[in-house]
Amino acid sequence: MRISVIGCGYLGAVHASALAELGHDVVGIDVDERKIAALRAGRPPFFEPGLPEILSSAAASGRLRFSTDIADAAGADVHFLAVGTPQTIGGTSADLRYVDAAFEGLLPHLAEGSLIVGKSTVPVGTAARLAARLAKEAPHANLAWNPEFLREGFAVKDTLEPDRLVYGVADERAASVLDQVYRAAIEAGTPRIVTDYATAELVKVAANAFLATKISFINAMSEIADATGADVTALADAIGHDVRIGRRFLNAGVGFGGGCLPKDIRAFTARAEELGRGDSLAFLKEVDAINMRQRQRVVDLAIDVLGGSVFRKKVAVLGVTFKPDSDDVRDSPALDVAVHLKGLGAEVVATDPEGVENARMRHPQLDYTTSAREALTGADLVVLVTEWREYRALDPIETGRLVAERRIIDGRNVLDLHAWRAAGWQVRGLGRP
Ligand SMILES: NC(=O)C1=CN([C@@H]2O[C@H](COP(=O)(O)OP(=O)(O)OC[C@H]3O[C@@H](n4cnc5c(N)ncnc54)[C@H](O)[C@@H]3O)[C@@H](O)[C@H]2O)C=CC1
Ligand SMILES: O=C(O)[C@H]1O[C@H](OP(=O)(O)OP(=O)(O)OC[C@H]2O[C@@H](n3ccc(=O)[nH]c3=O)[C@H](O)[C@@H]2O)[C@H](O)[C@@H](O)[C@@H]1O
């Protein structure tokens, strides 16, 4: 099929490459000239494992092109909208200006029978609004909403082998077009839920709200564990054995960040308020508050471990991205902690295998290095806030030879406390004795 993907960020670049890999003829479109130039040269504009490989194989096949001109979307059978829906500046709702601009830009280029498919995460009601506009401006075209559930770091696999496909459609015709797009996944047995626009939009934000709630739940337990001397990791293991609960997403620590969970729960709450149902989602404000508190908890631990002040202390911050295997620093708890410590007068050296460039653009006041060894050398305190494999694998004895003082805060509860303590380290975790 001929497909356009409007918006080539973390979602769209992977989506476009994966669809080309599946045999479709794809054009990826973005207003960001630098991004498009990089993609054209076969270079992903961000770090995502597996993306360089599918990008180059799709480009070599001649089935994947990139453009900054929306007119190049003309002639496609299916147009995916994958533009950003960030939090509004100064507010909590989703900023729909990019979705609206991409949609309006597409209107003059829609072929007879073509389908616009929304992928971006939007407030419930957006698809119905756009469908009404489409019926007026381009009644020969159709609209579907097909939310995306990929995780950064696993984006390629999640796109090629999704857990489920959700189609929000107004008629069967749109569903059968999407079946053609996703034929490979459907033939592999991927569950497919065909529903209305509102349900599809809600599935997406409900899933993220649930995941966020699970994380804040375990972080709340970790606060109680701290007050009682209990161990939240053992607690998570124990409750996680109950298949109704499950162990995944019960890792207590510095909390969730990124370009999605935080802004999605806020936008969902704002939308519920608009609908006069603010009470129904009031708990998500608590989920958000618990989450944001974890960053402060790590800073407070640092102050405590350093005897009341971080001023002029050399602090090595391990990790700046919101999670490992990504270069994404949007709403990153790790970067927040680093900035806060710096604000308190600490001499922060932040390190990350992939996130330094993005972090520096946002917070140029921090000192950065991509070498963990360099960051650790002479440190009075080590703060692990993103659990990259290389940080989890640090050897306590060898690391002990680099630092000035053997003090470490495990902000992700991933270190073997016994091994580190045996090597003479003072180790503090969140919710661990
Ligand atoms: N990043 C992720 O893991 C996932 C993101 N989502 C959702 O997907 C959407 C996109 O997210 P990301 O890719 O992370 O954002 P992003 O910020 O990385 O990418 C958005 C892209 O859209 C481009 N853009 C903006 N206006 C445009 C226009 N009028 N025409 C063409 N391109 C335009 C921007 O230049 C940017 O490259 C959001 O709604 C997000 O919530 C959903 C699932 C996973
Ligand atoms: O809508 C989106 O964009 C995506 O948001 C999340 O994906 P992502 O943000 O890439 O990353 P996650 O793996 O969900 O992690 C999110 C945050 O939660 C934190 N987390 C995760 C799990 C856990 O147990 N504890 C915890 O603190 C991570 O460190 C990270 O900061 C969802 O998992 C995806 O399904 C969804 O498509």
TrEMBL record:
Keywords: NAD, Oxidoreductase
Keyword Transcription regulation: no
GO terms, biological process: polysaccharide biosynthetic process; UDP-glucuronate biosynthetic process
InterPro entries attached to this UniProt entry: 6-PGluconate_DH-like_C_sf (IPR008927), NAD(P)-bd_dom_sf (IPR036291), UDP-Glc/GDP-Man (IPR017476), UDP-Glc/GDP-Man_DH_C (IPR014027), UDP-Glc/GDP-Man_DH_C_sf (IPR036220), UDP-Glc/GDP-Man_DH_dimer (IPR014026), UDP-Glc/GDP-Man_DH_N (IPR001732), UDPglc_DH_bac (IPR028357)
GO molecular function: NAD binding; UDP-glucose 6-dehydrogenase activity
Binding site for NAD(+): D30, K35, T85, T121, E152, K263, R330
Annotated UDP-glucose/GDP-mannose dehydrogenase C-terminal domain residues: 316-417
Residues bound to substrate: F149, L150, R151, E152, K204, F249, L250, N251, A252, G253, G257, K323
Active site feature: C260
EC number(s) on file: 1.1.1.22
Protein name: UDP-glucose 6-dehydrogenase
Species assigned in the record: Agromyces mariniharenae
